[in-house]
């Protein structure tokens, strides 16, 4: 085995063994009648578009209109978003290029192969925190959608019933519909229902312009500029959280039938085109419809008795139910590998005690996320935290990978110098965004935030 390859690399993962020519990436060799036959495996570039959209387009869309309001309106937010998208897409190319150096199949492996074990451990901890926080966000959104459904079915009187209480419905539905899906060792069976959730998000994107042009929304106050120039940066966590697909991008790239930058470029152009249009349309029309009174969860601002809104509510709830186990699975894998590495668990115990470890980790993870979701008021609070972590995945780790790639070269030229400078720029920008978002989050918590957008139907 190549000593430069990560020890925990899957032995059957596409791309093990010596680095081949670019056109041979993603192929299996079989000997038939003494002749080596190349059999293509993996996904095509156009099928990978759906994987990128599925990874990037999700819960963050519900908070985008509110982020536009906080940042001072449509113009300033779109300018900030356009600038960041250039860096965000650049980071995806950096990760793909870095992944090719050791044929790394995952984000953590890229960091480990280029930055060392300590950075790999930090990266794994960040992934655990990010997946944990996203799980909390999904449970909060589930509670929001139950409130909408009960409002449609029973009117405001549902708030007086204890069995319609938000904490009760989140807890019962999570235990009954999510927890059983979290225990299996494999989660392949969830790929089809979770894929349908993407169409649910796209349905919401289409719904917003329709409601804007057909609805009767009057006396809407729209901001044309930020209250202070620093308010523009309030949209940073939402943009980073919304477009963060970088942890998933390395496995997507590794599974390409033709693993090369050219094929990946086609995937990213179309995938990010869909995501950018979706986020922009939802944010612009959602904000134009409700203005400064828009809710943290845009669906809470619409009339719950509208049939189209009810369909959107059900579809987004279904996506949350089926995506939560996938996020828990990803977080649990990172947690398990970190646990084994730190405690130096014996290889025999790694296999024999895996079921007990998995069940224990699932129960602890699920319980903690559920308890926190019951007491956190809205998704905006969590997205502030997750946006800072997303900036680390988008900027900091890719920047360090690029710097370390430059340091591996014994004789520098202008290209290596520019590469190192670009890496430094990414690290500096990522550190700035992480520090700024964290400071903003603490400040808003201390000041109490904007309570006008936090009121639910029963508040």
Strand-helix topology:
Layout: E1 27-32, E2 35-40, H1 45-56, H2 64-70, H3 74-102, H4 107-115, H5 117-154, H6 166-182, H7 191-214, H8 236-243, H9 246-254, H10 261-290, H11 307-343, H12 347-352, H13 354-375, H14 379-407, H15 414-447
Helix pairs in contact: 1-9, 1-10, 2-10, 3-4, 3-8, 3-9, 3-10, 3-14, 4-5, 4-14, 5-6, 5-11, 5-13, 5-14, 6-11, 6-13, 7-10, 7-11, 8-14, 11-13, 14-15
Q: Top keywords for this entry?
A:
two-stranded antiparallel ribbon, mainly alpha, 68% helix, 15 helices, 459 residues, globular
What does this protein structure show overall?
The chain has 459 residues and is mostly helical. 68% of the residues lie in helices and 3% in strands. The protein has helices at 45-56, 64-70, 74-102, 107-115, 117-154, 166-182, 191-214, 236-243, 246-254, 261-290, 307-343, 347-352, 354-375, 379-407, 414-447, and strands spanning 27-32, 35-40. Strands 1-2 form a two-stranded antiparallel ribbon. Strand 1 (27-32) and strand 2 (35-40) form a beta hairpin.
